[in-house]
């Protein structure tokens, strides 16, 4: 384990962050990996100058956050190796930098304002978009800890890598995988279209695309025959389908857009799931 990359979790000492810390500890223990807990001091910029160095009181506060987090983990998982770090810098920048040497990152969904219970905060969004490793975004909410892992599938190759990630995770977690292929836009309104050549053509295009995805699923699932997995096709909006499925799942796995670092983004579906599902893994 000495050379194993850690599970890294960011915390600001809040209740939501505490939930993420405990989930990160559970993940680390399940995968026999060390846990690194990180907090950050973000300097306040004045009009003409700023002092980036934290005061002694601020350092004490940061160390208290870390020690309290360690204590919470020890109460449940006494055998997880723990490292504690505080850094000076924007929290999202600190965590993205840390992702280069992480097996996975865990962040809490901490939004602000009247919609905070529905939306993730800016830190979680930036980290999920820019990190160099898989990112778990955790919020306490309605989900089934004993349910399957749901993977969102799409025609893009990145979703097949998400499926691989979901299957590997399911093996370690001792659960099953449900691969969900849904349709947006035209497919969602197919039932409302008038019968005719255009509807027949669109129906054929949809089924061709679904069959191709099903074949790709079968090929990958065969390589993970020891994991129970099913393919499900729904003619509905992908976002709605995955958010609905999240309440019956222990985790929803989505893929980012982009094949390289410079064009890495979260697509509309992945971003919506990130904002509304209780437990999400952005698979990289």
Task: Explain how this protein is built.
This protein is an alpha/beta fold. It folds into two domains: about 5-140, HUPs (Rossmann fold), CATH 3.40.50.620; about 150-280, HUPs (Rossmann fold, 3-Layer(aba) Sandwich), CATH 3.40.50.620. About 40% of the residues lie in helices and about 20% in strands. It is built from eight helices and ten strands. Strands 3-2-1-4-5-10-9-6-7-8 form a ten-stranded mixed beta sheet, sandwiched between helices. Helix 3 packs parallel to helix 4 (about 120-130), helix 5 crosses helix 6 (about 195-220) and helix 7 packs parallel to helix 8. Mean pLDDT is about 85; it is low at about 110-120.
What are the main properties of this structure?
single chain; 284 residues; alpha/beta; Rossmann fold; 2 domains; 10-stranded mixed sheet; 40% helix; elongated; Rossmann-like_a/b/a_fold
């Amino acid at each position: 384990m000495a050379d194993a990359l850690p599970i890294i979790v960011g915390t600001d000492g809040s209740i939501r962050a505490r939930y993420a810390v405990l989930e990160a500890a559970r993940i680390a223990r399940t995968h026999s990996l060390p846990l690194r807990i990180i907090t950050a001091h973000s300097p306040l910029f004045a009009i003409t100058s700023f002092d980036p160095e934290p005061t002694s009181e601020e350092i004490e506060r940061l160390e208290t956050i870390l020690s309290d987090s360690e204590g919470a983990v020890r109460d449940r998982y006494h055998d997880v190796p723990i490292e504690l770090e505080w850094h000076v810098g924007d929290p999202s920048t600190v965590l993205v930098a840390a992702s280069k040497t992480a097996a996975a990152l865990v962040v809490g969904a901490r939004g602000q304002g009247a919609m905070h219970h529905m939306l993730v905060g800016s830190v979680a969004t930036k980290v999920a978009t820019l990190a160099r490793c898989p990112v778990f975004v955790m919020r306490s909410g309605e989900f089934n800890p004993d349910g399957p892992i749901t993977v969102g599938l799409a025609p893009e190759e990145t979703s097949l890598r998400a499926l691989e990630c979901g299957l590997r995770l399911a093996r370690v977690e001792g659960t099953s995988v449900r691969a969900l292929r849904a349709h947006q836009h035209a497919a969602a309104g197919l039932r409302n279209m008038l019968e005719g050549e255009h509807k027949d053509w669109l129906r054929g295009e949809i089924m061709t695309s679904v069959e191709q995805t099903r074949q790709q699923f079968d090929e990958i699932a065969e390589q993970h025959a020891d994991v129970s997995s099913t393919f499900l096709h729904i003619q509905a909006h992908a976002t709605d389908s995955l958010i609905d499925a999240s309440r019956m799942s222990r985790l929803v796995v989505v893929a980012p857009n982009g094949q390289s670092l410079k064009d890495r983004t979260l697509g509309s579906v992945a971003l919506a799931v990130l904002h509304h599902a209780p437990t999400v893994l952005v698979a990289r």
